[in-house]
Amino acid sequence: MYQAFTGGSISPRGWMERQLKLQANGQAGQLDQFWPDVRDSKWIGGTAEGWERVPYWLDGFIPLAYLLRNEGMIARAEKYVQGIIAQQQPDGWICPCKDEERATYDIWALLLIGKVLALYCECTGSKQVEEALYRAMKNAHHEFSTGHVKLSGWSAFRWYEGLVGLKYLKDRYPEAWIDELARIWQEQGTDMPSLMPQWIRPMNVWRLETHIVNICMSIKYEALACSVLGGEYTNQAEVLWKHLEKYNGTAAGVFTGDECLAGTENNQGTELCAVVELMYSCERLLELTGDPIWAERLEKIAFNALPATISDDMWTHQYVQQANQICCTVFPNKPMWRTNNGESGVFGLEPGFGCCTANHGQGWPKLMLNAFLRSEDGIYCPVMLPACLNTEINGVKVQVEMVTDYPFRHSCRYIVRTDAPVDFELKIRVPAWADQVKVDGVKIGKADCISLGATWSGEIVTEVELSGKPHLVKRPRDMAAVEYGPLVFSLPIEAEYKMREYVRDNVERKAPYCDWDITPKSDWNYGFASARFTVEQHDVPEIPFSSKAPAVTLKASMAKVDWPYADGYDTVADVTPASRKAISAPEEKQLYPYGCAKLRMTEMPRTRG
What pTM was computed for the model? Predict the structure, then answer.
């Protein structure tokens, strides 16, 4: 349906450029400088972890480097990619293990490195790396078709991730073995829809069948399989999404899972890997199906759940976030989480497990890569982001620039520049939340998209304005959350930060990649005394999702209610208050975007007098 633009044709602008630079100067951009699992990885001939962490890290670092056109970062990415293919065996085997270990090596890493090498080729056009990917997958065909290697464990639940690399190859080498390998993976892989009954009732037990990252990755399985093998697309993604949303949905547009599905309770956690993998599933589904619902879901996750669980400076992150999060400290005894350890809610270098340390960096860069998509008739803009596209259409150089502060503001200026007259369609998605749309000051009727088909010549500017009102949305247990545009809003809790530096397993946690205990300094036991909210706009700060100076806030009338801690804890709010009766006079409170409030209450009741 749509195709991603490649070869460095997209450039970030405005707040997105600042966000990507924060990432480049933060944890994800600097892991290879200090974190042993990346710095000393077996993938490049070292002795540290030789499985998913380097591929995970490169999956975000490569597009980040090329989007920013940062020569130093590009050289570092090149060093890793060259280091990986330098160790490729003569028969094509690429994973860092001994020949006798192939049958027992967790082949999930092969599926992941195939995806990463394809991404690198899209960013660079490297024929050398394309050949290495071809040889690696051709070797995989031999290993799987002979039965020497089989899917098991992680790879059996993530088999469709391997189709990303295979699709890249099939588009260039339509050879029979590619389909054969894809079919083997499909036959050996887990049938994810068959697991849906297990996703209804959360259990306090760790299972691959209910693992949130497996599930978030799997949303795109059918679309990817059809893109490689053909066949009728039946929209299983929508079936899976609706089921997960019903039984495990959160106000921020993601699903609970810490590491496994955790229900709809607002004090349960969502793993950061799940956030970025769900974004990637939405991105691929948008490209492969063309359904704008995936852009709708993508922007809600990206503008809320992603920034909420990473510190302002992007040097620390949580393993899991909560919708109602009143404290981020290590649990002294039994964790609140169903399947995670007690430090998973702390902001740090490696809380919980290191997978999120390596993997969270793909979120922002891949969102940026989806600011523009190539359509059959021209260019599609699925998400308003400050960005610039330089491409060619029918041999004519075309530039499309989006000038916007969306999601903090609800307008965008589209500037099209061409070297010569050229016909193409510029299609702009209209978010479902918009009650009214104006194009160059003229109201248009309700529509999913704006289609600007024209002969473009010179410079043409189009202004799009969206309008909507802040409003309450229903949440489980007769609770509510506030949405305005694509942003979810929360009651911020004044926070005290305490730094912890230490060494564990020979890995230093020191500033700026230390751990932080964040404790509340203000009351959190509030409900909505009114359903009316006043929008206040502020300057968009250098840190776009600043926890200190948000670009947009809401004034709300709120009153205190009797709201206890969860049974057995003094750092976790119970799921609902003991009573919805107001125990204070209404107060004017300021609500922050969910992604800006590190301590927050998001799902709250309507109070009674």
Answer: 0.98
Residue 595 token pair: 């992604």
State whether residue 310 is helix, strand or coil.
strand
| CA nearest neighbour of 298 among 410, 484, 431, 490 | 431
CA 20 to chain centre: 14
Lookup: tokens for 575:
């799921």
> What would the mean pLDDT of 435-449 be, rounded to a whole number?
92
What are the phi and psi torsion angles at 488 (to 5°)? -95, 145
- State how beta strands 411-429 and 378-381 pair: parallel
Q: What is the pLDDT of residue 575?
A: 98
Q: Which of 219, 298, 344, 213 is nearest to 306 (CA)?
A: 298
Give percent of the chain with pLDDT exceeding 70.
100
- Residue pair 1/287 in contact by the 8 Å Cβ criterion: yes
**How far apart (Å, rounded) are the C-alpha atoms in residues 288 and 299?**
17
- Residue 7: the pLDDT is 77
Burial of 72 (0-12, 13-18, 19+ CB in 10 A): exposed
Q: Concatenated DSSP letters for 464-508?
A: EEEE---EEEEEGGGEEEEEETTEEEEEE--EEEEEE-EEETTEE
SS (H, E, C) 402-423: EEECCCCCCEEEEEEEEEEEEE
Local structure of residue 254 (DSSP, 8 states): S
Q: What is the pLDDT of residues 237-273, one digit of tens each?
A: 999 999 999 999 999 999 999 999 999 999 999 999 9
User: What is the per-residue pLDDT for 6?
Assistant: 83
Q: How far apart are CA 528 and CA 128, in angstroms?
A: 59
Q: Is the dihedral of CA 391, 225, 113, 194 positive or negative?
A: positive
Phi, psi of 389 (to 5 degrees): -115, 130
Q: Tell me how far apart the alpha carbons of residues 586 and 123 are, in angstroms, rounded to a whole number.
A: 54
Of all residues in the chain, the percent with pLDDT exceeding 90 is: 98
* CB 48 within 8 Å of CB 40: yes
Average pLDDT over residues 403-421: 98
For 450, what's the count of Cα atoms within 13 Å in the CB-facing half-sphere? 24
- Please give the DSSP secondary-structure letter assigned to residue 292: T
Rounded CA-CA distance 593/295 in Å is: 20
| Length of the chain in terms of residues written | 609
Mean pLDDT of all residues belonging to the chain: 97
